[in-house]
Amino acid sequence: MIAEEAIKLIAALYGIEKEVRGQSPEYRAAIRHEKAKPLLDDLEHWLSDQLPKISGKSDLAKAIRYALTRMKKLRPYLDHGFLELDNNCAERSMRCVALGRKNCLFMGSEGGGKSAAIAYTLIETAKLNGVDPQAWLTDVLSRIADHKITRFDELLPWRYAQT
After folding, report:
1. Of the candidates 123, 119, 95, 125, which has an alpha carbon nearest to the alpha carbon of residue 107?
2. Are 39 and 12 a contacting pair, CB within 8 Å?
3. Could you report the per-residue pLDDT of 105-146, keeping only the tens digit for each?
4. What values do phi and psi take at 87, rounded to 5?
5. Which residues of 101-134 are buried (b: 16+ CB within 10 A; e: fewer)?
6. Where are the alpha helices (DSSP H) in 23-107?
């Protein structure tokens, strides 16, 4: 019963995120303050009220304590419209890395591992911005040698997507 109620409250937060998806960061922050902040406040108080009512050693109590200790780190998403409620998008983009972990275990060296991490970051950032990674990297690599360092931001994938 307690877990079911918590899931309903959390689902309401995700409903608000669905409503603001694709909107400007300012709009997202405004709607979150109007609608999500009261829900998040209610969820935190409700979880605090439920904890003394259940066995401290139960899995549910552990889950509630886990959630309560992370509430402070969750709250900035209310003020900053560019933040997400969760990190599912980042985790999904890294899934291929996790699946290929065994194959990549022996990249050759620590430097090889760092290079792979940089490549994964560039590729996934391009994908998240709706840009073909190969086309973007080809364009950037052909222009970067003569590009002014003070205008580096012009080479970023979200700028490429606008062209």
Report:
1. 119
2. yes
3. 666 677 777 888 888 889 988 998 899 999 999 999 999 999
4. -110, 25
5. eeeeeeeeeeeeeeeeeeebeebbbbeebebebe
6. 25-31, 37-50, 59-74, 76-79, 88-93, 95-99, 101-104
Q: What is the DSSP letter of 83?
A: S
Which residue in 131, 114, 112 sits closest to 123, CA to CA? 131
- Percent of the chain residues topping a pLDDT of 90: 60
Tell me if 136 sits within 8 A of 160, measured CB to CB: yes
Q: pTM above 0.70?
A: no
The tokens for 48 are 């605090």
